[in-house]
Amino acid sequence: MKKILLTGVVIIALAQILSAQKLYSFLDNGEPVNKYPAVTWLKESGITKFEQDKIYVIELWATWCKPCIKSMPHMSELATKFKGKITFISQGVWESDTAKVRQFITDHAAFFTNSMVAFDGGKDKADFDRNWLKPSGTIGIPRTFLIRNNKIAWITDPFVLTDEHLQMLVEGKLTAETAKAIVQKNKQ
């Protein structure tokens, strides 16, 4: 009787674990990504899926985020240097006022010259928030995702992203470990 009861408890526990795995997905370095979440594209036609042989850098920002605005010239410079090699996406997050975001893009047009611009439409209800931010554990911005061959190569802070990181990404040599080693080297 104890064996039957114990077996029943184990089966119930396994069922709960398996159902929890279906409810929650996680995004981290090395994870495959195929579809781009549903967003409103404010500049260029945008994408709905990642192409296998393309490289993407997704920069997360908001109009109210001072560190995001501070990182924009740096990201714009990288987008200019790697134009034609990497697709840059400036992804507005955690806002619901489309007019305010559109005006921000107009007022800061120089920052968006070489990147597509997307807007998620607001926190919690947004597909981007549900399918990327929460699963990746992103609780603050600015944040940057590097994607190569339909996999997340590295999730980082845009302030530490360098030409060297992106060149290694283009060459297919960037891993989370090599990326972190570059950051450490640059701190010295």
From TrEMBL:
CDD domains in the cross-refs: TlpA_like_family
Keyword terms of this UniProt record: Isomerase
Statement: the UniProt record of this protein carries the keyword Calcium: no
Gene3D superfamilies: Glutaredoxin
Organism listed in the record: Chitinophaga ginsengisegetis
GO terms assigned for molecular function: isomerase activity
Protein name, per record: Thiol-disulfide isomerase or thioredoxin
Iron-sulfur found in the keyword field: no
Pfam family, one: Thioredoxin
InterPro entries noted in UniProt: Thioredoxin-like_sf (IPR036249), Thioredoxin_domain (IPR013766), Thioredoxin_ResA/DsbE_sf (IPR050553)
All copies of domain Thioredoxin, residue ranges: 12-188
